[in-house]
Structures are given as C-alpha cells and as structure tokens.
Amino acid sequence: MKILILSLSFTFIFCSCRAKNINELALQAAQELLNATKNNDWEKVVDYTCPLKVQELGGKRKMIEDQKEFFPQKKNRSKIKLGKIEEIQTINGTTYVRLYYEVYDDHSVNNMRIDTIGVSKDKGLTWWFIDGPLKAEQFKKYLPDLVGKMIVPTMQHPTSVFK
C-alpha cells in the first residue's frame, strides 16, 4: 500500500512539473524565435515557422532568401517583446499554446499586439509558430485540430499610447 501511495504521489508530482515545464519550454522557444528575428537569423526563423507555410512559400531555402530580401540587414527601429501565454491545449498528443508579442516604437505613440500559436508534437522539445491574423480558412488549413477549440489569433490595430 505504501508503495502504491508513493508511486501515485511521484506520478502526480512528475505530471505537475511536466505541465509547468511545457509553459517554460513554449516561452523559451518563442523567445528564441524573437531573438532570431531581431538578429536577422532567417534560417532559425524558418525552423520555427509552420512547416506547411514554409512548403507553400517554396521551401526553406526560398523562404530564407525572401526574408533576407524583404528585411534589410539593419536593425529595425520597432521593438518587440514577448508577452504571456494565454491558453494551452493538448489535443491528440499535440500541444498548442496561444501567446502574444507586443510591438512598439520609441519614435511613435503606436503599440501593436500580435497573437501567435505555438505547436509542439513532442511534449515541448521542438516548436513551430504561426502568427495571426489568420482567416478562418487558413486556421482550418494550418491548425485543423483547433477549429472551434481555441480562439483564432487576431491582429489588434495599433493603439495610441501617450508618454
């Protein structure tokens, strides 16, 4: 009986720690994606991008070249910081997290929020992300298991903040 109680206690503690760690793992991966974006590390950015989206855009090599062309190698004036996880769900062994980034610029009074969904199929060891806004048909294509189960990411219009 003592062994059973000890075993159940260990299982509960292990599961509680694992649930907490998935949050930390998701935030760590989201921060790595953000750092890669800030540092123009497009290869890493593509590694963290929804695989179906990468395929649709012509594959990894093409997407990296497009990113280099679209984003100049200089630092962007806008500042981006990682927000919080707002929702987590595990469906059929895949973990989904909804979190957000905040974008702001020191030279303007506009702030913007970008909602993002992170996906891990291996209990948080690897992640990919897809940013909002997603139209309903895109949501169904990229995240079919979440239709009707998680709020669709949206992009909020910039809000004026007087400093």
Write the layout of secondary structure elements.
Blueprint: H1 2-38, H2 42-47, H3 51-56, H4 60-70, E1 78-91, E2 94-105, E3 110-120, E4 128-131, H5 136-142, E5 159-160
Antiparallel strand pairs: 1-2, 2-3, 3-4, 3-5
> What is the total domain count?
1
Share of residues in helices = 40-55%
| Extended strand count | 5
Q: What's the CATH first level? A: Alpha Beta
Low-confidence stretches: 6-17
How far apart the termini lie comes to 63 Å
What is the N-to-C succession of helices and strands? HHHHEEEEHE
**Tally of helical segments:** 5
Structural class by SSE content: alpha+beta
Describe this protein's structure.
This protein has 163 residues and is α+β, with helices and mostly antiparallel strands. It has a single domain (2-160), classed as Nuclear Transport Factor 2, Chain: A (Roll). 41% of the residues lie in helices and 26% in strands. The protein is built from five helices and five strands; from the N terminus they run ααααββββαβ. Strands 1, 2, 3, 4 and 5 form a five-stranded antiparallel β-sheet that branches. The longest helix has 37 residues, at 2-38. The chain is globular and about 40 Å long. The chain starts with a helix and ends with a strand.
